[in-house]
């Protein structure tokens, strides 16, 4: 291609974007969705927005370590720089082949994200990115490099500069600019620089070694030691402030053999397997954890069935209520916080909205209970994957030093879903049964998103990754640390590789470096996630134990459930007996209180005998039969009603016994009749007091009938699960992206189409202004000639825009024209056209 045929190099980022096709622009808008919120009017505005500080910071934070290192190298290179100069800074004099292989991709990412523009002969880092990454005394560069010779000598006297030039063995010059240029050329010439350093004293070289990898600043006294004086005289150290010296960038690069970074990292650290288990063992272990997860959530909701803890004024659970819930679930408090938050994320619990607001189960909980076990599990895990609420933060402090509580505000972390998906994707990239070392997962994540500035002190992504690993294990997505088959299906991941892709060679023969071969699982759409969840449930179903319809009754007043029980049996047994221990088998214990609870719920002694006989694989022990008959014989013998409260009994000897008991003193009892006692306490308090004394009273109505007390399930009104807090603007879908690209192209066409001299404003972006008569005459002439016009237009909402139209007809105060910017025929009111301008003859 001749020089005349070669396209001109872009002079700005806007011109570089103008030269991109729709595929490339679409990739930019997907990777940086904040650029189309709202949609820019043209490519100039898009370029301006891409260079704003907030947008650039966000883009830099989403780069992997090697791509960020490439940007940092460009920040200390000349502006513009060539590709060879960048390669020298990244690969060094030894030309590391791994760096050379990975650099084109890293540079391509920077170009795609509009952080770098220009050809390989004129690479330019966006000005804002250079300001953020270039070294300065206030913001040291991660490269550890200092200012250039030109920057360090900016305030130095001409005489002092000439002294340095002479001491370095260079001829003196007539001005400071040429002197600094001469000194820079010396420091960047490998051969001459080596000769200069060969003359340096050994202790002077030791000083340079201490500064070479940064920080490049050091302290000196008013009378420097000889080893420092030798360096200062020759400009190898330059003063920046009283008592402070700096190692010039060119000197440091020579000592580093050209490297901008001490350790370039073109290849991500491998995710190492800490242990390898048989896939069947992993799946069965994960299934056991999934069953435990379901049982824990059910137990939590059963505990809150009649109304859970009160909602704090600021929202959330109190510390005391969280402790009580942890005791009820027999788990540590952080684990209890996770289960509470998971039930909330799944829409199973919510505040009830009453004046005395409490947490309670939602109507969705009853529907969830009716689902098969595997589907209940997939519902929980599908709710867990995108949730931004982070239970691991419970008990910590917010920015205002307030304690973060479970179910309270301040727990959302928008990065949580992304980290969770990435951790599971790394597990999916390992062979089946391989459990990763947690530290290698964290190291990989830190490479993919390096920590910058304050992030180093608060490694939130690292903590999110650790929580994701432990939560996946508790939920049964993983077993023994390895991703299960149903967990892999839940992610929509492909089959596990025969060997880990992280362990593959990345030698010169490979076409792509390891980190450019994607092993992650893309985030699924809602429809795709529903299909994946159904597939996971199908894989999990045969691994879960079948519910049993029997228990084993024992002579010590216990019943052993050797597995999960069918719901009606479990519900009834939960009323008739107390849970003594959990695990692979659940042990229930029968006590007078538990039997009385069943009788209070409306069961008779004969009902209880029949129930136990029907569901026991062993004969009903005689002690249990005696216990039920004994409690039933005394149940309801005493009657408690509302007088303030009263006790009546046909056997006055029983009432005498109560009156004689010292424990009854607090009830305020007095005899009204031989068979009736009155009390000062309320009926509920009297019932509890007599039961504490060992009696079995029954409540009665005003008509004298026994009241059967059943647990009242308390439900909230219908509630929706909490929405995740997005991490910035959402990635645009294909429809939105296509519409945005059309609008940007259209606006750019209107703003860049050449106009005839003297007919358009000189300021780019200003709307044309013509009188109404001139506007009408120009439009009518364009109808006859078929020429296109440039117009300014203000719509009914007051939004102004520039458009290129080809008028078709003018009538009734409206112009009908083909709108080149919208690519369709439209009708415009003439009074909303601010003005017209004719296009240049070569505007095609």
Automatic annotation (TrEMBL):
Residues 493-508 have a biased composition (Low complexity). Keywords: ATP-binding, Helicase, Hydrolase, Nucleotide-binding. The keyword ATP-binding applies. It comes from the Bacteria. Residues 774-836 form the WYL domain. Residues 134-153, 493-513, 748-771 are annotated as: Disordered. Residues 551-673 form the Helicase XPB/Ssl2 N-terminal domain. InterPro entries: WYL_dom, XPB/Ssl2_N. Pfam families: Helicase_C_3, WYL. GO terms for molecular function: helicase activity. The keyword Hydrolase applies. This is Helicase C-terminal domain-containing protein. It comes from Streptomyces coeruleorubidus. The lineage of its organism: Bacteria, Bacillati, Actinomycetota, Actinomycetes, Kitasatosporales.
């Amino acid at each position: 291609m001749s020089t005349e045929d070669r396209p001109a190099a872009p002079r700005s980022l806007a011109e570089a974007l103008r030269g991109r096709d729709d595929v490339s622009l679409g990739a930019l808008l997907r990777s940086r969705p904040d650029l189309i919120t709202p949609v820019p009017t043209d490519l100039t505005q898009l370029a301006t927005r891409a260079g704003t500080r907030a947008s650039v910071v966000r883009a830099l934070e989403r780069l992997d370590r090697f791509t960020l290192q490439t940007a940092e190298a460009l920040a200390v290179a000349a502006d513009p720089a060539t590709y060879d100069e960048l390669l020298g800074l990244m690969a060094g004099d030894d030309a590391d082949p791994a760096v050379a292989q990975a650099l084109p991709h890293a540079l391509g990412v920077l170009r795609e994200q509009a952080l770098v523009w220009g050809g390989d002969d004129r690479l330019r880092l966006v000005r804002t990115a250079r300001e953020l990454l270039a070294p300065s005394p206030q913001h040291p560069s991660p490269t550890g490099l200092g200012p250039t010779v030109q920057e360090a000598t900016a305030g130095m006297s001409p005489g002092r500069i000439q002294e340095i030039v002479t001491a370095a063995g260079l001829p003196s010059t007539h001005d400071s600019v040429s002197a600094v240029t001469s000194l820079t050329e010396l420091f960047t010439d490998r051969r001459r620089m080596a000769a200069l350093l060969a003359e340096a004293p050994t202790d002077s070289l030791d000083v340079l070694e201490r500064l070479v990898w940064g920080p490049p600043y050091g302290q000196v006294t008013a009378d420097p030691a000889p080893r420092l004086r030798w360096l200062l005289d020759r400009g190898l150290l330059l003063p920046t402030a009283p008592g402070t010296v700096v190692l010039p960038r060119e000197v440091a690069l020579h000592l580093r053999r050209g490297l901008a970074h001490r350790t370039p990292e073109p290849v991500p650290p491998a995710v190492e397997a800490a242990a390898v288990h048989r896939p069947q063992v992993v799946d069965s272990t994960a299934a056991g954890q999934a069953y435990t997860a379901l049982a824990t959530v059910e137990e939590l909701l059963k505990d809150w069935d009649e109304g859970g803890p009160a909602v704090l004024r600021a929202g959330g659970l109190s510390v005391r209520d969280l402790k009580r819930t942890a005791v009820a679930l027999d788990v540590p408090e952080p684990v209890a916080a996770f289960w509470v938050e998971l039930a909330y994320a799944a829409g199973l619990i919510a505040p009830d909205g009453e004046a005395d607001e409490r947490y309670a189960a939602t109507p969705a909980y009853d529907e969830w209970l009716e689902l098969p076990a595997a589907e209940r599990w997939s519902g929980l895990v599908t709710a867990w994957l995108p949730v931004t609420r982070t239970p691991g933060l419970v008990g910590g402090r917010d920015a205002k030093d307030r304690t973060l509580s479970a179910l309270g505000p301040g727990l959302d972390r928008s990065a949580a879903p992304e980290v969770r998906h990435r951790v599971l994707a790394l597990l999916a990239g390992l062979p089946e049964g391989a459990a990763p070392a947690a530290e290698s997962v964290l190291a990989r994540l830190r490479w993919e998103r390096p920590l910058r500035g304050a992030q180093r002190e608060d490694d939130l992504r690292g903590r999110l990754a650790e929580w994701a690993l432990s939560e996946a294990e508790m939920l049964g997505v993983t077993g023994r640390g390895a991703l299960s088959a149903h967990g892999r299906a839940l992610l929509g991941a492909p089959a596990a590789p025969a060997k880990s892709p992280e362990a593959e060679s990345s030698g010169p023969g490979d076409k792509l470096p390891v980190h450019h071969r994607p092993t992650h699982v893309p985030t699924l759409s809602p429809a795709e996630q529903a299909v994946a969840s159904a597939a996971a449930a199908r894989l999990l179903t045969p691994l879960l134990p079948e519910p049993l319809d029997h228990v084993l009754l024992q002579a010590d007043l216990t019943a052993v459930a050797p597995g999960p029980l069918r719901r009606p049996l479990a519900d009834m047994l939960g009323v008739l007996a107390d849970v003594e221990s959990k695990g692979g088998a659940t042990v229930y214990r029968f006590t007078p209180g538990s039997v009385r609870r069943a009788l209070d719920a409306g069961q008779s002694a004969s009902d209880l005998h029949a129930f136990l006989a029907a569901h026991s694989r062993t004969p009903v022990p005689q002690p249990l039969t005696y216990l039920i008959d004994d409690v039933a014989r005394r149940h309801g013998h005493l009657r408690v009603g509302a007088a303030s409260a009263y006790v009546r009994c046909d056997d006055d000897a029983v009432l005498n016994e109560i009156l004689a008991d010292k424990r009854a003193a607090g009830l305020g009892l007095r005899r009204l009749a031989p068979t009736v006692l009155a009390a000062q306490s309320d009926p509920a308090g009297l019932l509890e007091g007599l039961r504490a004394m060992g009696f079995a009273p029954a409540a009665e109505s005003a008509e004298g009938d026994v009241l059967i007390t059943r647990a009242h399930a308390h439900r909230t009104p219908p509630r929706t699960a909490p929405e995740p807090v997005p991490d910035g603007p959402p990635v645009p879908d294909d429809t939105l992206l296509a519409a945005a690209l059309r609008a940007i192209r259209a606006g750019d066409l209107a703003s860049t189409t050449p106009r005839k001299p003297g007919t358009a404003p000189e300021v780019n972006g200003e709307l044309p202004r013509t009188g109404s008569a001139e506007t009408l005459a120009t439009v009518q002439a364009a109808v006859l000639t078929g020429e296109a016009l440039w117009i300014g237009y203000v719509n009914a909402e007051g939004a102004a825009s520039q458009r290129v139209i080809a008028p078709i007809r003018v009538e009734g105060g409206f112009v009908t024209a083909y709108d080149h910017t919208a690519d369709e025929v439209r009708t415009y009111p003439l009074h909303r056209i601010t003005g017209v301008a004719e296009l240049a003859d070569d505007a095609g």
